[in-house]
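Deliverable D4.2, example record:
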Amino acid sequence: MPEVLRYAAFTTDPAGGNPAGVVLDARGLTAEAMQRVAADVGFSETAFLIRRDDDGPGCYDVRYFAPAVEVPFCGHATIAAAVALAEREGPAPLTLQSPAGEVRVATAAGPDGLTAELTSVPPTVEDAAPDLVAAALAALRWSADDLDPTYPPAVADAGVRHLVLVTRTRDRLARLDYDVPGLAAVMRSARLTTLQLAWPEGDDRWSSRNPFPVGGVVEDPATGAAAAALGGYLRHYGFVVPPARLTISQGVNLGRPSTLIVTLDADHSGVRVAGAAVRLP
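Output generated by the structure prediction step:
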């Protein structure tokens, strides 16, 4: 059994954020073994790293497993792994080769502890098909009137695919009670990893919730990949003008408040997502 570290990402409080498993040395582990470890850990994702010695310092292969499935990319487990490495080796730039592509991560020490900032793969955004939106709304037990017509439903991908739905009200976001198997079936058919359900608070602040039934988890308290996808979505449709900085609050309704900082550059490169992480007792 490999050593599994446990961190909460996008928080400085162990009671907040999204818990992630981290295996810093996954050499010799098969995919089946990684899946068993992730299922045993039970967090929404566990990151498995293998150092790429021939590529210089800070270079790793990484794979991410939820309790029920492997995912190509996971933001909160990336932040957790980067902070875990910085604790042991000092803050330094990292290059992670993930199944979704190359992800660069910067780490830094500050007054509140260690933080990390990842740069996602360049995002893609496409209008969501009406039948996908209708099926997702039915599984969410929402209606079309619950959505803010200013923001078009879309599928955004900054490493994994998310259906982005923006609500009219914070109350609609707070009252999330969905059909778990029904939504999982919809998501599998569209190859979605989570739903990015969001509400604009104003002043570049957003509230977010992310159902993740395909991974064996009802909901994520903090989702870095979905934050990157939301940033790409807002840039794509012109709702923000880069350079821009957004703050996403997630996990509040789960009792695990999380803060994700999204930075959008003027070009259409990857989206930067930053946050703290703290080791769990």
